[in-house]
Amino acid sequence: MCGIVGYVGSKQVVPILLDSLKRLEYRGYDSAGIAVQSNGGIKIEKVAGKIKALEAKVAKCELKATSGIGHTRWATHGEPNEINAHPHADCKQRVALVHNGIIENCNVLREMLIREGHTFRSETDTEVLAHLIERFHERGKPLEKAVLGALAMVKGTYGLAVICADEPEKIVAARHGSPLVIGVGKDEYFVASDVPAIMGYTRDVIYMDDGEVAVLTPKGFSAVTSDDQEVIKEIEKITWDLEMAEKGGFPHFMLKEIFEQPQSIRNAMAGRIVPETGEAHLGGVTLTADEIRSISRIVITACGTSWHAGLIGEYMIEEYARIPVEVEYASEFRYRDPLVDPSTVVIVISQSGETADTLAAMREAQHRGAKAIGICNVVGSTIARESDCGTYVHAGPEIGVASTKAFTSQVVVEMLLTMHLARHRFGRFEPGKGIVRALQKLPEQVQGILEKNEEIRQIASEYCSHNNFLYLGRGYNFPVALEGALKLKEISYIHAEGYPAAEMKHGPIALIDDKMPVVVIAVKDSAYEKIMNNVEEVKARGGRILAIATEGDGEIVKKVDHVIYVPVTIPPLTPVLAVIPLQLLAYHIAVMRGCNVDQPRNLAKSVTVE
Ligand code: G6P
Questions:
Q1: By three-state DSSP, how is residue 503 classified?
Q2: Is the CB of 399 under 6 A from ligand 1?
Q3: Does residue 2 have an active-site annotation?
Q4: What are the tens digits of pLDDT across the range 48-105?
Q5: Which residue, by CA, sits nearest to atom 5 of ligand 1?
């Protein structure tokens, strides 16, 4: 993870770097720093802590410059202190750089460089890059040649921005496995880990591809491949606006994003459903009908919340398209010599489209002959570009570290994909019209649940002091139990476990007492009767129960301590409704416990390291 930024042009660089870094803080926030080119040298300022601390430090020094780089860190190698913060410099502080990624052969390189007389200051893997570039940098030769030489020795992943005191007004950027985008202004260029960082300044962007090295000066932009061949890059226009990436009056991004769900769900299906025929059209899923018919097996791979969405997709596709589906953690799949062949289709789900394990799992599957369908939110992200075909969820920028609106949009898109697959496999798809009707009602229904925010906050106040929670669900709502527990863990640091309700008797039931609240997703679907048995089992042991139930269920209220009602929908879409109260519950509990909701400790939004 980590976020990197850079600017060359005629404006004062420090405010631009700080502003862009703030927009990248979701990528890491344990330390930060900037380096600017000034008076023939390089000035570096770093802090342990957040961008605010860096801003305070920089305000005390008169840093005047028009080109520089910045970094917000999520530590991998070396604890998050000032010395380990980026930018890192070579021995003479003539070269400075910021890096996102991991240099895997850093120990070997460090030993070599120390033998050659280089002196290291930090414990980071990144610092070897600065010394390597120093090693290749001969006066008179352009910096980009030194960067190319250094990178040829490096194993690992990087998004990199480098400056050199000998070449003012120049940034060299390089990408391999970590996202990097160039912003194009008038006689000015930006570089950043993602688009929201720079879209206050420009909407014209160039997405860098792996293996490319770019040179930015106020006069222009050029790029070469790792073997120094020129590449012509296209400028693309960003069509969404900055407001979408700001808080818009909400105290936290997470709450804003929870409340955006009626709209993000609408966007996920806009232009994609045909009510008259009950069909879903996903223009980006370009598999032919023959290809769809010859799929022998689907593997869904993802991490975190996207993996939970994948579990729901498994149930949908098996029920309606009758194709065997397995769901795999990307981090497991990539390393276990998986059985994948050309008749396997891999569905890769990722909000960011940059998660390192998910990307590697996709590449592994493609390498073995499988076709990959990407389901991503971030437009132009690596998974979106490298998948064989795919579809965006169009949830808009998600900044809160705990994923909310991306999840519900992923589930909606999985429903559309299921309809698409079923229709092509069977020639017709009878349940389509009913599914479309249910999909169309979702935004209003979600809005209705959001209006219970105050009621949910009240309930949260009754549960916020507990330190252990159990979440139970069955069928389509077992993944919702996992997701509800994950939300609580992520942002309030409360131990929470999600379980398939019937499995409770094989272990977790031993934990139940009046100190262990149990959140039960007991909506009216085919598992309802069964889950009510599980409710009785909890009650019999003195457990305190909060149920998510379907409107009109008058029975459940007699058996549990609290109920939050959600409207009726078809079973595969119940997760979209049932998860909303759980997102709000986690949010309010975290706020009541004084936790930093948008930037929970130790987590990052986009995990671009394995
Ligand atoms: C991180 C985030 C999670 C997210 C997961 C997968 O752990 O904190 O919210 O679900 O990465 O991210 P992706 O972008 O691939 O969906």
A1: helix
A2: no
A3: yes
A4: 988 999 999 999 988 999 999 999 987 767 778 999 999 999 999 999 999 998 888 9
A5: 304
